[in-house]
From TrEMBL, chain B:
Domain NIF system FeS cluster assembly NifU N-terminal: 7-91
A GO term, aspect molecular function: iron ion binding
GO biological process, one term: iron-sulfur cluster assembly
Name of protein: SUF system NifU family Fe-S cluster assembly protein
Pfam families: NifU_N
Cross-referenced InterPro entries: NIF_FeS_clus_asmbl_NifU_N
Source species of the chain: Komagataeibacter melaceti
NCBIfam families per UniProt: SUF_scaf_2
CDD domains given in the database record: IscU_like
């Protein structure tokens, strides 16, 4: 039995070594120290498979898509559209037409707020939660101010979980048209029970949108099993490039929604009198899209799937448990958010040491963490803090890096006492 | 652990034991600075004489070590100074954090020159100066 455990552990270390070898940036030095990158929740590093695929596309097979009547354009169109199939498979979508490429999650939510939002009537409600990223707050506020809808907020519990009882109360008057909630908090690491939220929303006659920016990196998502209506994610947190995000929505909803941006590629016919729209997904993809980035996202998804979410999830759970234990031993350190269902995003404060000072002093030791309000000011106010430091993990993060973080925090604390 | 020359003794001392923190009952001028990125805040209370000279100044700072120490050292440095001199110090401070070269006139304020290598932290040190400039401009308008 012991032998088996040791073998498993060394297998894990071996495969972690292989994964790290795929990320060229991890060999960089920062201030003369080995880079310890603990800010993957903000944006993940890129494996050579993504970097090489994008460079190779530009070197050998690049032209504009959907319009060129020549070999190079047709090949690029195929590569671009193949990613739509890939993303549909990745999310368990019912059809490839349900995948809309956007710039990022923020743009995907804005698309829904503008387009689906235009179908809402004054007095209808959009229900969000207290732990949303600004990207899932501000577009709804703008819709409220534009369209006279009501914006309602479901609180979080003291341990940083979504208050499901309050969610039920918020749904009870039957005026909620859309529930828009994070699938995993970028501050607390809390994973929400998306299926239960979807069931409650549907029972109250509401549609449901999940912000999967954080979760899709760590767990397999199946939008049909979740019974979601909208799901958004972003490529750059998924080890892919910046500038490419995804909106998935049910076909019948997308058909009903008016276009978001107007321009080339999204039309069927154009005259000065009127234009008609292309069918989905193209109705929502105006102008030349992020071609190289989309193809890079495809490479990132292939890379993730070659590792598999079983391994990704197991690695992350072990790391998170290890980190909570190691950080728990740092005097004066307080982890913000202790919901039982959580992923590898850990926010903390440390006695009177300001998060910015923590981040700068960690950086001097090669350790990159985020510090600030993490684009979630209302949540910060709810938690009674103005800022936190945040360490977040990726598939390349090692237990040794977390030990180094904890040891350096102890030294920083000593420095300020 | 690699300690940064930014967190020099003078910075740490002024953070832990500020000499100019608090309010002034007789203050006739106020200045505010807020950093929307982190919620840090500096509130200045000062007594300014008829010629615009700062007779006394105190700060209430909610912020990081760099911000708090900068506010305290700034308060010390500008006490008794006239507006023209203060504006020159502000320009020298700005030059120091942008270039890393501190004009000799800055004295202990040169402790913040290493910020030119931590560009994301420059506004932490400059926040008290933003509050001070706001206060001086308000005073000029009076």
């Amino acid at each position: 039995m012991m032998d088996q455990v040791v073998t498993q552990a060394s297998d894990a270390a071996g495969s972690l070594r292989h994964i790290r070898a795929d990320f060229p940036i991890l060999t960089q030095k920062v201030h003369g120290k080995d880079l310890v990158f603990l800010d993957s929740a903000a944006s993940a590093q890129k494996p050579r498979q993504v970097i090489d695929c994008m460079a190779e596309t530009m070197r050998t097979q690049y032209a504009n898509i959907h319009r060129g009547l020549y070999w190079m354009s047709e090949r690029t169109t195929e590569a671009y559209e193949a990613v739509r199939d890939q993303v549909a498979g990745f999310l368990g979508a019912g059809a490839r037409e349900e995948i809309i490429f956007t710039r990022n999650s923020t743009e995907a939510i804005n698309l829904v707020a503008h387009s689906y939002g235009s179908l809402l009537r004054p007095g209808q409600v959009v229900l969000i939660s207290e732990m949303e990223h600004h990207a899932n707050i501000v577009p709804w506020q703008m819709l409220r101010d534009r369209a006279g809808i009501e914006l309602r907020v479901t609180p979080v519990t003291d341990d940083g979980a979504l208050d499901m009882e309050a969610l039920g109360q918020n749904l009870s008057d039957g005026r909620v048209a859309l529930v828009a909630i994070t699938h995993m908090s970028n501050v607390l690491g809390t994973i929400t029970d998306a299926r239960a939220i979807a069931d409650m929303a549907h029972a109250a006659g509401a549609k449901v949108l999940f912000d999967g920016s954080q979760l899709a990196v760590h767990r397999r998502v199946n939008v049909r099993e979740l019974d979601a209506d909208f799901y958004v994610l972003t490529g750059h947190k998924l080890y892919g490039p910046t500038g490419i995000g995804v909106l998935w929505a049910r076909r019948e909803i997308l058909d009903e929604m008016p276009p978001f941006l107007g321009g080339g590629d999204m039309i069927s016919t154009v005259s000065f009198g009127r234009s008609t729209w292309a069918p989905v997904p193209h109705k929502f993809e105006a102008g030349t899209p992020a071609i190289i980035e989309t193809i890079g996202l495809g490479a990132a998804i292939s890379y993730i799937e070659s590792i598999g979410f079983d391994r990704i999830g197991a690695h992350e759970e072990a790391l998170t448990a290890h980190a909570l234990k190691a950080l728990g031993q740092v005097s004066g350190l307080k982890v913000i958010g202790t919901a039982p269902e959580r992923g590898g995003v850990i926010s903390f404060t440390m006695a009177d040491v300001h998060p910015h000072d923590i981040a700068t002093l960690l950086d001097r030791n090669g350790i990159a963490v985020r510090a600030g309000h993490h684009c979630a000011e209302p949540l910060m106010r709810r938690l009674g803090v103005s800022a936190t430091a945040r360490a977040s993990f990726g598939i390349y993060t090692t237990p040794e890096e977390i030990d180094l973080l904890a040891a350096t925090l102890v030294q920083i604390r000593g420095f300020f006492v | 652990m690699t300690q940064d020359d930014l967190y020099r003794t003078v910075v740490l001392q002024r953070t832990k034991t500020p000499l100019y923190a608090g309010k002034l009952a007789q203050a006739n001028a106020q200045g505010q600075g807020t950093n929307p990125l982190c919620g840090d805040r500096v509130h200045l209370h000062a007594v300014i004489d008829a010629q615009g000279r700062i007779d006394a100044i105190r700060h209430e700072t909610r912020g990081c070590a760099i911000c708090a120490a900068s506010a305290d050292l700034m308060a010390e440095r500008v006490t008794g100074q006239e507006p023209a001199r203060i504006r020159q110090l502000h320009a020298d401070m700005e030059a120091a954090v942008q270039t890393g070269n501190a004009p000799a006139a800055l004295g202990e304020l040169s402790a913040f020159a290493p910020l030119h290598r931590h560009r994301s932290r420059i506004r932490c040190a400059m926040l008290p100066w933003t509050a001070l400039m706001e206060m001086l401009n308000d005073d000029k308008d009076r």
